[in-house]
Amino acid sequence: MRPLLCCLGLATLLGPCLACPSACSCSTKKNGRLLAECAYKDLQEVPEGLSSNVTILTLSANRISWLGQSSFAEVPEVQSLWLGYNQIGVVEPGTFALLVHLKNLDLSHNKIADFPWQDLRNLSGLQILKMNNNRLAGLPWDAFRSLKDLRSLWLNDNELTTLAEGTFDNLPSLSQLQIFNNPFNCSCKVFWLKKWTENTSVSITKGGSTLCVAPGRLKGRAVTDIPDHHCVAPSVQLTYLSNLDNTVMYDGLTLTLHCSVAGSPPPEIRWKIQTSSRRVEINGPNVARDGNVKQSQDRFLVFKNGTMAIPNFSKEDEGIYTCLAVNDVGTRDVSVNVALAGSENPAEDLLRDDPQASHLGGRSCYKGDEMDPSGAGEKLVIVYHMPRESKSRAGGAVPQVHLGTLLLALGIMLCC
């Protein structure tokens, strides 16, 4: 009786360890890992009945077309998962999210066009990721951000036309990368990739076969061969002028900022404004040639040539004004911290504080030598003329300049 009980007890202990679907063959490797070999079985889905302590699961060369959240629920300890050469076209979010022990994941030679990249955030121990020979047309820039142990990444033979700058950042262990045989559009959006390959120690397999498909002038050239002169990072310069000569504060002051940019391709101009009461972002001109304001944000008038005008500039408009130049190579910005002050004798008061300051028609612009340690940019103090008899009026409400007249004047001066 005792030997029988021992055998029953041993079977109870070993039973779960040896659980294996009929279509698979399961065995224990010399290192103690449990292998479930289910390749070449004509399977249309992940089989049920796998042991919970399977660490190597091979499902290559089947006819699996779909993976869902429950597909690998039975194997939470799996470390190597081989799914190459199937017909997988759908991968539901959460399919791999709980497989925190995963080190090797092979999804090559499938039909994957859309992948739940957020699932990779939990797979910090992943070392090999094979996504080659699929239908991937794009990747989020932070797709691999959490994969600190990733050594080998295969993305070749997909439909990638571009890669976002920073895609391969924060991968300290990466030693092998394959991105060849993708139809790259070698606009300046991928110029960073050329620079990255020149400076990285990562081995890029068949780098010479990582070719441009477009534009026409670069077709057939390696991505690493994009001419430098085609792609130039932006440069930006900000100049300013307080306008409307011979007026005083209560008649209305217009501050004009002009953003000059250069680069290839020509940079877009954007503005960011931070005052004590609000934050505004303007991503393009809002004033048309005819002087009409195209957007509801008519407090800050932005013209196509890079000029911004702020009519009736007041203490409420004090703050940081930033011009950004943006193209496919990068972004540059410059800021000015604008403040407002009144004086009966602006030239004398300003020169008393700074003998190097200049006087402009009753109002002066002061450009400080020291940069604001907060990164706010140079300090611009507009000192406007305030006659003695007008002080009481300036302390009250400021009458509005007629906007239509101002727009027409600026439209003629700035939009042509």
Automatic annotation (TrEMBL):
Transmembrane segments: none annotated. Residues 348-372 are annotated as: Disordered. Residues 1-19 form the signal peptide. Keywords: Disulfide bond, Glycoprotein, Immunoglobulin domain, Leucine-rich repeat, Repeat, Signal. SMART domains: IG (SM00409), IGc2 (SM00408), LRR_SD22 (SM00365), LRR_TYP (SM00369), LRRCT (SM00082). The keyword Transcription does not apply. Residues 234-339 form the Ig-like domain. It comes from the Eukaryota. Pfam families: I-set, LRR_8. InterPro entries: Cys-rich_flank_reg_C, Ig-like_dom, Ig-like_dom_sf, Ig-like_fold, Ig_I-set, Ig_sub, Ig_sub2, Leu-rich_rpt. The keyword Glycoprotein applies. This is Immunoglobulin superfamily containing leucine rich repeat. It comes from Strix occidentalis caurina. The lineage of its organism: Eukaryota, Metazoa, Chordata, Craniata, Vertebrata.
